[in-house]
From TrEMBL:
Catalyzes the ATP-dependent phosphorylation of L-homoserine to L-homoserine phosphate. It comes from Oceanobacillus polygoni. Residues 199-275 form the GHMP kinase C-terminal domain. Its EC number is 2.7.1.39. Residues 57-138 form the GHMP kinase N-terminal domain. GO terms for biological process: threonine biosynthetic process. InterPro entries: GHMP_kinase_C_dom, GHMP_kinase_C_sf, GHMP_kinase_N_dom, GHMP_knse_ATP-bd_CS, Homoserine_kinase, Ribosomal_Su5_D2-typ_SF, Ribsml_uS5_D2-typ_fold_subgr. This is Homoserine kinase.
Length: 293
């Protein structure tokens, strides 16, 4: 086996009303450096020296995918590095799942297609909104119907992204528990109208309208806002410094603003001063998705 390096970007799902169906790849990365070795070695920020490799989430995914293809992982030495914070709404689980799928793909020479990886990743994650952009890059609108995933990569967006990462975690599972099980027809019709308009506005480069409608989501934001520290403050202050719109990133607690191209720092600097315990920064959209070298 030749040594290889897997790189997977982080992602921000939902973009307001695109609940479970819209997401954007961003330039924070999980990487795995892999070489064949006499025995298993997994150097990872999430494993201590006493932990067994078999407990590692990425190893478990890779093993499952290899077994699904009647194959066995060769013993490897893996070094993981990541600047994607865990359980903060930046798709860490989707990036780790894809890294595991690609690890099995490369190490066992499974020759998986991109659609196979999307299908497997979505089965594990439950929805394609982080998996699809982390795999393909850019802004992806995707939907899972009858076990079939249809998706579209939008043309590049001309915006800066500003993210506000608090120093607390929020597990997706907990943030899904506060959501209603169902919505009335009226509610769903208005909510999907808002979502349709966000997509149409983004595709038309009408970022002002997109930002306005992003902030009117009716699928998840209002139910989750109490779980998100400084929710109202961040939205208000970001807008006053020029952001088009600010929403919860994925299931939170990170929030993300769309800002005019070149105007990200104008939003980020005063917000960082206001929120000293946060990591506030300007990110770019990653257009490549998962890569292997
Ligand atoms: N690199 C990794 N190594 C091991 N486990 C990981 C890794 N990345 C994510 N995980 C697991 O996934 C969990 C976080 O997943 P969760 O879905 O709650 O949040 P997220 O994916 O970061 O955010 P969101 O889905 O809202 O964008 C972590 O607590 C950890 O169990
Ligand atoms: N669409 C998902 C993203 C996080 O996995 C949610 O909001 O729960």
């Amino acid at each position: 086996m030749r040594p290889f390096r897997i790189s997977v970007p982080a992602s921000s799902a939902n973009i307001g009303p695109g609940f479970d169906s819209m997401g954007l790849a961003v330039n924070l990365y999980l990487t795995l450096e892999v070489t064949q070795s006499e025995k298993w070695e997994f150097n990872s920020p999430s494993l201590t020296s006493n932990d067994n490799v078999e407990e590692h989430f990425i190893y478990q995914i890779a093993k499952k995918i290899a077994e699904r293809h009647h194959s066995t992982l060769p013993t490897c030495k893996i070094t993981e590095t990541s600047d994607i914070p865990l359980a903060r709404g930046l798709g860490s689980s989707a990036s780790a799942i894809l890294a595991g799928i690609e690890l099995a793909n490369q190490a066992c020479e499974l020759h998986l297609s991109a659609e196979d990886k999307l299908q497997y990743g979505t089965e594990i994650e439950g929805h394609p909104d982080n998996i699809a952009p982390a795999l393909f890059g850019g802004l992806i609108i995707s939907t899972l119907t009858d076990n079939e995933i249809n998706w579209l990569q939008a043309p590049a967006l001309d915006v800066d992204l500003v993210i506000y990462i608090p120093d607390v975690e929020l597990k997706t599972e907990a943030a899904r528990q506060v959501l209603p099980d169902s919505y009335s027809r009226d509610h769903a019709a208005t909510a999907s109208g808002i979502s349709n308009l966000v997509v149409a506005a983004l595709l038309s480069s009408d970022y002002k309208l997109a930002g306005k409608m992003m902030e009117q989501d009716m699928f998840h934001e209002s139910y989750r806002s109490e779980l998100i520290p400084n929710y109202d403050l961040i939205r208000k202050e970001a807008k006053s410094h020029g952001a088009y719109g600010t929403v919860i990133s994925g299931a939170g607690p990170t929030m993300i603003s769309f800002a005019p191209k070149g105007g990200g720092q104008t939003v980020a600097e005063p917000l960082q001063a206001l929120l000293p315990n946060y990591r506030v920064g300007v990110l770019e959209i990653d257009m490549q998705g998962l890569t292997v070298e």
